[in-house]
Write a structure and sequence with these properties.
The protein has a four-stranded mixed sheet with strand order 4-5-7-6, with helices on one face. The protein has a three-stranded parallel sheet with strand order 1-2-3, sandwiched between helices. It has helices spanning 9-13, 15-23, 52-66, 82-87, 89-106, 118-121, 123-138, 146-152, 169-174, 195-200, 210-220; strands spanning 2-4, 29-34, 71-77, 110-113, 161-165, 185-188, 223-228. The chain is built from eleven helices and seven strands.
Length: 248
C-alpha cells in the first residue's frame, strides 16, 4: 500500500516500483489523502467550469489504472493545509482512522510513504508521513477505532514493513533536496523506467511539473530507492518483500 498526500505524488518516487510489482502479481493499493485543490491548473481552457479537484481525481484514477493499481481510495482533506488537520484533535483522529480502515480492509504486507523530511520539505508530505506511521501502529490494536472495525467487520492488521521513499546522493545534490532517509533498499526498475512518465502524462493540469519530474527520472536511473523504517543503516535489500511471509 502506498499512502500519498496529493494526486501525482505517486509518480515521483515509486511509480516504477508500483508498475513492476503490479506486473509481478502484487496487489498494490494507493491511498491519496487530498484531491489536489490547491494546485495550479496548467492550460485550463476558457469556459471550463469544472472544479480542479474533480479533474485531478479523474487524472489520478487514469494514472493509477495505467500503473495497474489494484485499489485506489481518494480522500478530500484540504490540500496545502494538512498541518491544520494535524493540529485539530478530532480531525487528526479521523484522518488517521481513514488510513487505519484502509490498512485493515486491504491488509498490506508493505506500506510506502514519504519520509519525515517530506521529499523536498513540503508540509503536507511531512504530515502524511507522521500520521501514516501512527496509523500503521494503531491498525494492529483491536481497541483502536473499535466501533468502526466492528461495524465493518474488520480485524486488526499490522503491516510487516514500512518504507520511506528516499533519494540517492546524486539526486539529492542535483535537485538540492534536504537530507534524505538512509537507503536500505534499491528496487531495480529496468523495463519500467518510463512508467512514471507515462503515468504523469495523465496529470495534464500539472504540466508545469513535467521538467522537475524529468530531472528526477534522469537522476534516479534504473533504480528506485527506499528506507526501511527501524532498520539498521547498513541493511541492503533489493526487494520490498524480502523476509515477508506470503499470506494465503
Amino acid at each position: 500500500m502506498v499512502v500519498m498526500p496529493h494526486p501525482d505524488d505517486e509518480c515521483f518516487g515509486c511509480a516504477s516500483t508500483i508498475a513492476r510489482y503490479s506486473a509481478e502479481g502484487a496487489k498494490v493499493s494507493l491511498v491519496t489523502m487530498t484531491r489536489g485543490g490547491a494546485g495550479l491548473w496548467a492550460g485550463r481552457a476558457a469556459g471550463d467550469l469544472r472544479r480542479l479537484t474533480d479533474v485531478r481525481e479523474i487524472e489520478l484514477r487514469d494514472a493509477a489504472a495505467d500503473l495497474n493499481v489494484h485499489f485506489l481510495e481518494v480522500f478530500d482533506y484540504p490540500d496545502g493545509a494538512l498541518t491544520k488537520v494535524e493540529e485539530v484533535d478530532a480531525v487528526r483522529e479521523r484522518f488517521i482512522g481513514d488510513i487505519v480502515r484502509c490498512l485493515r480492509m486491504h491488509r498490506p504486507q508493505v506500506v510506502v510513504c514519504f519520509g519525515p523530511e517530506g521529499a523536498y520539505g513540503h508540509p503536507d508530505h511531512k504530515v502524511v508521513s507522521r500520521l501514516t506511521l501512527q496509523a500503521c501502529t494503531l491498525s494492529g490494536d483491536q481497541s483502536a477505532y473499535e466501533m468502526e472495525a466492528l461495524s465493518l467487520g474488520l480485524s486488526a492488521w499490522s503491516p510487516t514493513k514500512i518504507y520511506f521513499q528516499t533519494a540517492t546522493s546524486l539526486t539529492t545534490e542535483s535537485l538540492q533536496l534536504p537530507p534524505q532517509p538512509p537507503i536500505t533498499t534499491r528496487i531495480a526498475i529496468r523495463g519500467y523506467e518510463q512508467a512514471k512518465l507515462r503515468a504523469f502524462a495523465y496529470h495534464l493540469t500539472q504540466a508545469q511539473e513535467w521538467e522537475p519530474l524529468r530531472k528526477w527520472v534522469e537522476a534516479q536511473g534504473n533504480v528506485e530507492v527506499f528506507s526501511l523504517v527501524g532498520a539498521p543503516h547498513e541493511l541492503s535489500e533489493d526487494d520490498l518483500f524480502a523476509g515477508v511471509q506470503a499470506t494465503p
